[in-house]
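We modelled the chain as a single entity of 123 amino acids. Its sequence is:
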Amino acid sequence: MSEKGTLHGQANLRINGNIYEIEDDAELIVGGIKRSHRMIGKKSCHSQTYVGSEVKCKTPLLSGMSLREMQELSSVEIIFESDIGTSWVIRNAVQTNTLSLKGGEGNGTLELVFEGEPAEEIS
């Protein structure tokens, strides 16, 4: 557990219980209620809809990993673990990005995008 006032810096990603090393720029959009505002005459109004969650991250393609299997991940449970001690679980997630692999300096990574049910915060 981190000290109070510590900022999020890095995350780990678990996909169906397996830990994946991810780069520091991983992004979590928690989803849930999305509100829209508009004025009707002089009255302020809002509506709301539910939106899913999204995780964007980069992971290296290591020996033993299948590019095809990573491309086709669906109905998985994702746990996004922050270095501040907070985690979020995303159920029924699917990998939505078309994966490509490029070699050379600084490459060899897969850009994964998962979308699923709204994330639930867990401790």
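As a brief sanity check on the tokenised model: The longest strand covers residues 32-40. The radius of gyration is 17 Å.
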